Amino acid sequence: MSDASTPKPAHTLDRRQVLSAAAGIAAALGIGSSAISPALAATKPKRHQLTGPFDSFRDYIKALEERGLLLRVARVDQDQYELAALTYRLIDEFGWYGAPAVLVEEIRQDGRWMKGPVITNHQGHWDTEAIIWGKEPVPGDGPATYREVFNYLYGMMESSNGKPASIPTRQVPAATAPVKEIVLRGDEINLLDFAFIKSNPGDSARYVNTGSVFTEDPELGMNFGTYRCEIKGPRRLGINPEDGQTGWKMFMKKIERGEKTCPVSIVVGNDPIAWFVSSSLISKGGADELAIAGGLRGRAIDVVKSETNDMLIPANAELVIEGEVLLDQMEPEGPFGEMYGYLGLKKDRNFVMNVSCVTARKNPWILNQFTGATRGFCTAPLEAFSFYRLKKLIPNAVAFHSPVEWTGIGILSIDKTAPGQALALGKKLASLVPISKVLIVVDKDIDVLNRTEVMQAVGARWQPYPAAEIIKEARGMPLDPSAPKRPMSSKIVIDATRQWPEEGGPAVYPERNRDLLNKLAPEAKQLVDARWEEYLRGWKRGG
Predict the structure, then answer these.
(1) Tell me: the pLDDT tens digits for 372-381?
(2) Does 518 map to a domain?
(3) Segments forming the whole domain that contains residue 228
(4) Which residue in 91, 98, 214, 511 has its CB near the most CB atoms, within 10 A?
(5) Domain end (from 94, 111, 143)
(6) What digits encode the pLDDT tens for the residues 279-289?
(7) How far apart are CA 214 and CA 195, in angstroms?
């Protein structure tokens, strides 16, 4: 990542501000003061007892609460979409990277109150990037935290020559596995009894939308990925791997071989690193992804055998749904509110699963993702691993970032060494990264994490002609609501580097005012740093 300093975003709040704002939100939504986590009220630094890497989802959530990053709510009425509205209000108030996780103890769905907890936005805050690895965030500086974690993980990739570390899983007896505390079979199962919710009014049904779908294939190996699963009945689920995803490839391989069913185990409530692995692509070729998650954690993941198939799943998970995908049957599925923040398409034909067994902890904790409204998972790991590979193709790349709230936009910074280079490299990257529909290339002095700097570069360094190129058709994202021929998309590369005279730029390019201040009057910054607290004492804050 760029070493350029990044101003603290306006939405980055300290704990006292979070408490004050959260209390106001709670009052506005009719949530009692007892619903706010006690940790949010803590204004004095405290020693953290729970540190990552974590063995379970609930240990991680407890650590967030200890750090004041969890809003605890007693009850919400999701039949009125209260939790959805609360999530949007929190994001509006604190931003995608500043809003706390939310834990709801009891939730109303389909006319009845159900015990939770239901958790959402569990990896939204900047600080979670560090916490899941057992590292301390940089106080009050989310981008700096992100950079430190990025550098740590990039260094991990360098030391292993680009191959993620791997520690084989450790199988434990079912009698000691928390996820086997409850075992339900056949008519004992009713998925509607669990606190899975209908997230958006436009959704077709309640969804298991954070399940890690475990599949195996003799040719493709083992895989688990996060695919949305529509609850169609007490023991029936839709499963939606998108065209080209590994789960989809495995189903198609089995269909080609004439197989009629595919055993599946769907894990809900993974530890935070296993969740990241499930939600991203860091390995190919059928590698044991749980072993990779163990390598990233630095210790083996405890696993236990599924009840109805031979797949090994995390023993410390919250809940597992087992059954078979019916490869010779398809059913309509959706619509569902997707990652672009728009309602996805209803699918006329999609995979469907018969559920034969559910195992769970007592009172399992249910993770829900408001897709397209909050960050789904920490992104520094994926960007660090992807950037390591990118550097092999583009040696003068300095940083690459895809802001989660700017779905479809990618930002590449380069050490530009020749005219025309930025457009050429941008076109290469646009062809490699399906999700990047708008690819902005900037100079190495621009911090890709600083949205203001990037937009200023577009405004001050870019001329639409000749410093842009439209790609008429390339592989895009199947979920892009603007694409008429999914998954194909048109794309645009924006060269927002300083245009050299050979590229039609001005003969002399002026320097930025901020750079001149730092270069010609460095003592000014030192003076302000020394008097910073004094300045703030003169500010009578409103609110």
Answers:
(1) 899 988 999 9
(2) no
(3) 160-362
(4) 214
(5) 143
(6) 877 666 567 88
(7) 22
